[in-house]
Amino acid sequence: MTIWQTFLSRRNTLDSPVLPFVTVLLSLTILASIGNLWIPADSALHVSTYTITLLGKYLSFAMLALAVDIVWGYCGILSLGHGAFFALGGYAMGMYLMRQIGTRGVYGDPILPDFMVFLDWDVLPWYWLGMDQFWFAMLMVLLVPGLLAFVFGWLAFHSRVTGVYLSIITQALTYALMLAFFRNEMGFGGNNGLTDFKDLLGFNLQADTTRVSLLLCSAALLAGIFVLSQWVLKSRFGKVIEAIRDGEPRVRFLGYRTDRYKVAIFVYSAMIAGIAGALYVPQVGIINPGEFAPLNSIEIVVWVAVGGRGTLYGAVIGALLVNYAKTRFTALMPDGWLFALGALFVLVTVFLPNGLAGVYGQVKASVKRNASDEQSPHQKSEAS
Amino acid sequence: MKQALLMLGCWLALLSAPTMAETEPASSFDDLLIELTEADLRTTQPILEAIEATGHPDVLPLFLTLLDGNLNFRKADQVLITIIDINGTDQYTEFTTGTSIEPLGRRDVTKIRVNNNLRNTLSSAIARLQLSSPDAALREAAVLSLLDTINDSTANDLIALRADESNRSVLASIDLALAMYSARSSDTVAAQITAIKTLSDSLQPNARNLLFDLERNADDSAVQAAATVALEKIDGKVTFYSYVDQLFFGLSLGSVLLLAAIGLAITFGVMGVINMAHGEMLMLGAYTTYVVQLLMPGYINYSLWVAIPAAFVVAGLFGILIERCVIRFLHGRPLETLLATFGISLILQQLVRTVFSPLNRRVAAPDWMSGSLEINPVLSLTYNRLTILIFALIVFVALLLIMKKTALGLYVRAVSQNRDMAKAMGIKTDRVDALTFGLGSGIAGIGGVALSQLTNVGPNLGQAYIIDSFMVVVFGGVGNLLGTLVAAFTLGIANKFLEPVTGTVLASILVLVFIILFIQKRPKGLFPQRGRSAE
What we know:
The complex is a heterodimer. Chain A is mainly alpha-helical. In chain A, 67% of the residues lie in helices and 2% in strands. By secondary structure, chain B is mainly alpha-helical. Chain B folds into three domains: 2-124, no CATH class; 131-219, no CATH class; 258-364 and 384-521, no CATH class. In chain B, a hairpin with a 5-residue loop joins strand 1 and strand 2 (80-86). Chain A binds chain B through residues 78, 155-156, 158-161, 163-165, 167-169, 171-173, 175-176, 179-180, 182-183, 294-295, 298, 301-302, 305, 335, 338-339, 341-346, 348-350, 353, 384, and chain B through 274, 326, 329-330, 333-340, 342-347, 349-351, 353-354, 463, 467, 470-471, 474, 505-506, 508-509, 512-513, 515-517, 519-521, 523.
């Protein structure tokens, strides 16, 4: 089945929500863009630039949640380190944006970013070379997280590290990276990270049009990746991935090299996280080692858990809802947010094991259970 | 602190002074005291020397008071007054009679001032006086403070003192001082070289400086060579002791890791519950210590003994609450347990932030835990780290005994090995689960008491230890308490030996990377569980 066929697939709309998802996503972003650019500021329908930026940020988070859902929901790999791939993608984008500042920095050095001048660096470190080229930086956005995921996944899945152990070492991975990026000697701006960006591909980052374009880009990419992922996961390859989640030894006994499948899906997911990071940085205007914090990575998992794992669109909805709640909560009562987030963790895991997307199924199952003495349908995600 | 003790000592000495002062016809001493009040900075030196020459028993307290800058005189009658600041209020005492008097105005008294030059004179005079002190520690300190200024007369004094001295460490320091003296100023090369050989056994920085000096500036090349050899020997010893020091710090870090991880070894290792709120149990223990100290302000030295059981109870109850309310619904779903307990950890952190404020709180250390055990001039072990090391081992042994020797331990092991079978045998698995979780959390609370003595107590205290704790448990092998012990100390020592080479941050990164690689190689840790209970 080609991607195009997936896109147009009309059978069983609940299982394959591609068309409604893409339609809703794109039309909403386009409406928001029109609201910002063409509706006057005093109109009730005007969408402020702040909202546009916020939406863009949410969409990049949604993409990140999608990445986590692909490995967790479909392959049973609970990664508590996806924030690392996100941040690496973000840093690659940040490096490109830093190089674009040129002589407009505080110290006016044409080559070295401000923090390097400040720390008395003489030459650009080798890993900053080429980052002034957009295509090269975008390549790095994909390659760096991909490579890390490949090496890490290869080591982990090859020696059959699974379940909780894997979760904990992914957490250690992002923690180690956080410590490393906090060091000034690493050449990534240390504690302060990379910030003070000026423009992207020649467009001023503060301009409304750039912001709207970034939002549209995010939406388009999210839609594209959604369709692509749906296609990947519905393919034969995706069936094996799901089978690994439900019973890895059995799949292995059937002759599949499960470790290679897992590495492949892990790398794919890490690259999506990297793209999400690259979209996040120009819209937020900063990237610092805080993005590597283990708490961030666990929060992503909660977005997915709230939305419902194993259903791509659930992850997106979860990310949007939780982040919207976070924005509102932190504005209304800053102290309350952690209480709410904590309670969300507990309530969702105890009462909504399949998230919001699973509510329908849960209700149906309980109705069925009440109606007859039959056993309730077997929970499909045993391995998770 | 030390200074305050010194002041107190000298103040006590003053109280006992008057009887002696009356019996002796020390009119010249009293005259000199009058002179002291009239002298200025330039003319004080000869007066001090004259005072020392009188041999009056009050000379030592006088010099100590003067050195501390507490000696004043009343302008009206030139009587010396000691002004000591005790808890923020000035206590006025007449120096010679030792009687307390009403506080005087700042304008009625004048301070007797000393400059650095006079301070040096005073210090060495005090040292000479203390050489005959009945307290061996004071005598030793006096000898050591003379090391650099020793001359013919003090050397003779020391030789005379040596004959009567019986305390071994004082004897050793006198020998050191004499060796330094002859190494520096003996006439014969042979005597110098013998003295240098004696010095090569010493770790005193003064001896080392002297040897450096001799190596460069001695007239005779044989002396220079001997100094070089001696320095090499000393350097070898210093390196050795710096390794011992690193080892001690490693053990100390290991004991902290052990305390942090050992509760997790029960909840994660034995029960298989991923408790991300474990760090917050540490935090609760630390805050309990803080609250107990607030409740008994006058008894800081004893508050720890109350805090330990209190922390155990508080953290244990929270643990049981968490188990009853959340974890028992998530049996057999480890990843969901991880998420739910993480949520709980966020709630607990925010709770503490709301109740106690987000700022760090300082927990006072009891007296018996401050200070350090000085083994030699280059190696001293701080008492708080030493205490925590021993405490960690005690907690570990106690936990091991509970698991191996009590009925609860038996039930816990039975349930963890085969839940259904244990249930069939009549074990109340629900109760055992709750108690085990309470035990693990309570132990973490006790760990928090120890941590509160090393770091500030804040809402993020637990966060700092959670990843390390998991690393320790996973590295040691899940379900194996001894493995946790070995892993904690291995990681602690490895970290501290890496630190001087790579820096603190890189050391912890390297250790993390090492563990990540290690888990790839041996997914079940150092000491994997064997037999039927292993999956």
